[in-house]
Amino acid sequence: MEKENNNLMEKIVSLCKRRGFIFPGSEIYGGLAGTYDWGHFGVALKNNIKQYWWKKFVDSRRDMYGIDAAILMRQEVWQASGHVAGFADPMIECEKCKEKYRTDQIVDKNKCEKCGGKLIEEKMFNMMFQTKVGASDDSSAISYLRPETAQGMFVNFKNTVDAFHPKLPFGMAQIGKAFRNEITPRDFIFRVREFEQMEIEYFTREEDWEKYFEYWKGEMLSWMEEVGIDMNKVHELEVLAEDRAHYSKRTVDFEFDYPFGKKELFGLAYRTDFDLANHKLDYIDEEKSEKITPHVIEPTFGVDRAVLAILLSSYFEDPEGKQEASNGAGEKEGRVYLKFKPSIAPVICAVSPLLKNKPELVEYANTKVFASLKAEFGRVMWDDNGNIGKRYRRQDEIGTPFCIVVDFDTLTDDTVTVRDRDTGEQERIKVSDLKNYIKEKIN
Ligand code: GAP
Fold it and tell me: Which member of 35, 188, 225, 306 has the lowest number of beta carbons within 10 Å of its beta carbon?
């Protein structure tokens, strides 16, 4: 079983590189651990996931305010938030080869996994990347790449209240990069040093925190299902007090069954009034005519882990394959396909002329099919590389729900072949009905 699981990760990593989703960072110089570069389809997938999140949690609500705060903030922000003092993992080092490990992630805390040497000197390692802002070299120039997007919202709490006068409860939402100098980045994009978060800080009166905690748990679960995460693999973990972050009085982690084990996917925390109080921010509750410090429920989603969970949930192998006998140009071997929901698939449909050396087919496919679908759906790909069977295999691996082929019959009856990714089945559809056909399918 373990071998199968390792195999699955290898297959996903290889597909992501081969098909232009995700590449190792700084690869031509030997790679930089814990960093990845996102290719054309990876960016598209990530953007669709982020847009879907923003649409559900910001655009379709009345109580949410978006923000895009600077990544660099004054060091006082991270002192007040407790990250300078406490955002650290326990680290242990090999006496012989100097390999470093996160103490809580190794089985044998005495022996180096790499060279068998003795492990020594456990110390706490602060995970924030430190940098200096400006030309000055003194300690007042110290800043950090943010380890969470959350603080960008807390420090803009007053600005948001002054600008929009929201009534409690209300939330702030942000999507952006976060950086952590992880001791041992691992498992592809699961634990990286540069990643993205989608976070909400939901401000409420203290007495209402439990109600909104439960409410946001439901919202998070429904979002996961909507973007195509396999809910049979999602588990809730009530995090024990000793394992919770310094700011949290209650945390539920949503864990996912990754091939490398059951591990955190997203989290939901009750941050109390910890952050606003430490930043000395408050709020006039007009309803109660008093000054209060609102309490915070924080649903947090890692974009990279969302991508990984969606890839793992969507990956299917069909060992038999399907006879792709589109006009006799099919292949019979097994196939791999990514069963993305159309709402997040990088490509909704691919358009092909059956033969690329037949100008009449290319002309029709380009002007009468591709151009209008591209204008309507945007995420439409022109694909005339290789024979039809190869194109289907490629589009299956990209996760394209529909492949549309213009052939010689099209020239006389204005119909095209539409091939369904999941079933491999093909239908003849009138070109004039294509847009509605696809719209119906994706809805
Ligand atoms: N503001 C709260 C916060 O940052 P967290 O549990 O430390 O909480 C939130 O991080 C989410 O960010 C995690 O649930 C995970 O999805 C993602 N995440 C955290 N560290 C990560 C890493 N090194 N690589 C990829 N994603 C990470």
Answer: 225
